[in-house]
Amino acid sequence: MKATWEKIEKNLGVLEVEVESDRVTAALDKAFNKVVKQVSVPGFRKGRVPRSIFEARYGVESLYQDAIDILLPEVYSEAVEQADIFPVDRPEIDIEQFSKGQTFKFKAKVTVKPEVKLGEYKGIEVAAVTSEVTDEELNQELERLQERHAELIVIDEGTATSGDIVVIDFDGSIDGVPFEGGQAERYSLELGSNTFIPGFEDQVIGMGTGDFKDVEVTFPETYHAEELANKKAVFKVKVHEIKRKQLPELDDEFAKDVSEFDTLDEYKEDLKQQILKRKEQEALGVQENEVVEKVAENAEVDIPESMVQSEVQNMMRDFDNRLRQQGMNLDMFLSFSNQSKEDLEAQMQDDAKKRVRNNLVLEQIAKEEKLEATEEEINKELENMAETYKRPVDEIRNILASNGSLDSLREELVLRKTIDFLLENSVEGAPAPKEETETKEATEAEDNK
């Protein structure tokens, strides 16, 4: 087989391929063996028609498309490898010659991975990030733990306040006509959670056990059910029960209940170290993002639109998977947020382009610096995955190898090593302003959810 590559513009080129005639003959044989099983000719059992009779009756040309479908994928892959190119989109194929006894000629217009011209990537200045734990942060963590271990106490007297859980019946109507989804019995609602229509929970605050009340609200203009959007509704509400969180005392007994420590002071010190470790990881993430962004800005690369769109689809799949883990799916989210799939994809465009650019630049740096993932590093990662999923290492390796993810794991390890290399060769400047650091940390934390 002969394959020649000619670049015609930017990331677009033409791959010209000529395949030996004996491979064409072999493909025609395979095509015949496939087609003949479905052919019926008088005087012959189905699937038993001789090749000469078949070609005389239907013509050898009737096998060409099946033969091309069999041969093209394998020879295209071989041609790509021979030409040493990296396609990033489906090729446009133009068949120039395919017939019995002749060579197979075709041209493929291919969009390939772009060339990256690196700028400065060593000695990049990154802001210093402090990772101290304040008393306020420690107290906030203790308060969250108190909330998590709080008991719900039924309140017999008094009225509901924000933070209470009320067990209610409600019956909603618009202009006196009930609407779908507007009724429920003994529904548990946490006041202040903002899970109901704006204004609903505020009007339940102050009600007591056994109280009745008409709650008047207006559905938001962007409400997911268009027939209810911007409509005024009245809910007849009855309170059956009020439950209030009773926080545990912060003392030695609390420490014993929630940890392995005997005293609150010991537990606080351990908690402080946990917070410190988390903040150090967040600070490292901030510096990693900063050095990658600056290095990418220094590079020159023309990104094909197909790569951006492919990354958008990857982001959409990841987003859908995260939604499913929360008991939703993409269709439900789009309905609730009053968006279309196209709207969401448009919002992801800039981030997708940035991701593609960053990865291309990191790959090029890895090549320049000859950074590779060793077998020892791959094995270590497989061991970590095996520990996480409680499966044998060999089983994890076989699964990844069978679905083509082992190479992806190798590439991910190289990217991590490249980012480590950039940080090791960076210089630490002045600390980032506190507000900026907190914003970056919050963004990173949200991305990692």
Descriptors for this entry?
single chain, 449 residues, alpha+beta, Alpha-Beta Plaits, Chitinase A, domain 3, Trigger factor, domain 2, 5-stranded antiparallel β-sheet, disordered C terminus
Number of domains: 3
Q: In the CATH hierarchy, what is the class of the largest domain?
A: Mainly Alpha
Q: Given the helix and strand composition, which structural class is it?
A: alpha+beta
Q: How many angstroms does the end-to-end distance come to?
A: 49 Å
Computed over alpha carbons, the radius of gyration is 32 Å
- Average pLDDT value? 91
Q: Could you give a short account of the major beta sheet? A: 5 strands, antiparallel
Proportion of residues in β-strands: 15-25%
Order of helices and strands: EEHHHEEEEHEEEHEEHHEHHHHHHEH
How many beta strands in the DSSP annotation?
13
Annotated CATH architecture of the largest domain: Orthogonal Bundle
